[in-house]
Write a structure and sequence with these properties.
This is L-threonylcarbamoyladenylate synthase. The chain has six helices and nine strands; from the N terminus they run H-E-E-H-E-H-H-E-E-H-E-H-E-E-E. By secondary structure, the protein is of the alpha/beta class. It has a single domain, classed as DHBP synthase (Alpha-Beta Complex), CATH 3.90.870.10.
C-alpha cells in the first residue's frame, strides 16, 4: 500500500472514532482524533494506560497552537518553528479539547510535527491527532514497528503500512515547558 492509501484509510478510521497505529517524527504512535472523547478512551484502553498520564497532541503547523491555548506566549509561533529536534511543549490553559485529553491542572502537551506523513494526515483530516508511543503502559518504547506488541497491532483500528520496514533509530521527543516570560524548562 502506498502513502496516499494509508492517508485515506487513516482518515476513514479517524472519522469513525477508531485508533490508528502510525509512524511519527519520533517513534511509532497510537493515535486518534484529538477532539473525540470516545476515541481518546480507546487509546487509553489499547495502551492499558492510566488516565492520569496525559497524551500528546500532534499539530501540523505552529500557528495552530494558538487555536488550542488560552494565553500562549506572544512569540510562541517563532519559538516552536525554531526547534531543531522533535519537541513537545506543555502548555497551560488548554481550550477546545475533551476533558480526558487535558491534564487535571488544565495543561496539554502539544508537538508540531515535521514528519511528511503526519503533516499530510493532519492537514487532510483538518483536526489534531493524539500521539502516544506504541507500547503497552509500563513497557519499553518500541524503537521500530517490528517491536510493537501484537496486542496493539491487532487491536488498532487501522495500521499504517508506510515505513513499517524503516529501522532508522529515532528517539521520543524532548518535553519542555514554556512559562509566561518565554523561559524554557526541559522536562525530558
Amino acid at each position: 500500500m502506498d502513502f496516499e492509501n494509508d492517508i485515506k484509510n487513516c482518515i476513514r478510521a479517524l472519522e469513525n472514532g477508531e485508533t490508528i497505529l502510525y509512524p511519527t517524527d519520533t517513534v511509532w504512535g497510537i493515535g486518534c482524533d484529538a477532539l473525540n472523547e470516545d476515541a481518546i478512551e480507546r487509546v487509553f484502553a489499547l495502551k492499558h494506560r492510566p488516565k492520569e498520564k496525559s497524551l500528546i497532541v500532534l499539530l501540523a503547523d505552529a500557528r495552530d497552537v494558538i487555536q488550542y491555548i488560552a494565553a500562549p506566549h506572544p512569540d510562541i509561533i517563532d519559538i516552536v518553528e525554531n526547534f531543531e529536534t522533535p519537541t513537545t511543549v506543555i502548555y497551560e490553559g488548554a481550550i477546545g479539547f475533551p476533558e480526558n485529553l487535558v491534564h487535571e491542572n488544565g495543561s496539554v502537551a502539544i508537538r508540531v510535527t515535521d514528519d511528511p506523513f503526519c503533516k499530510a494526515l493532519i492537514k487532510r483530516f483538518r483536526k489534531p491527532l493524539v500521539s502516544t508511543s506504541a507500547n503497552l503502559s509500563g513497557e519499553p518504547t518500541a524503537a521500530f514497528f517490528s517491536q510493537i506488541a501484537d496486542e496493539i497491532k491487532q487491536n488498532a483500528g487501522y495500521v499504517v503500512n508506510y515505513r513499517q520496514d524503516d529501522e532508522t533509530p529515532k528517539a521520543p521527543s524532548q518535553i519542555i515547558k514554556i512559562d509566561d516570560e518565554g523561559n524554557i524548562t526541559r522536562l525530558r
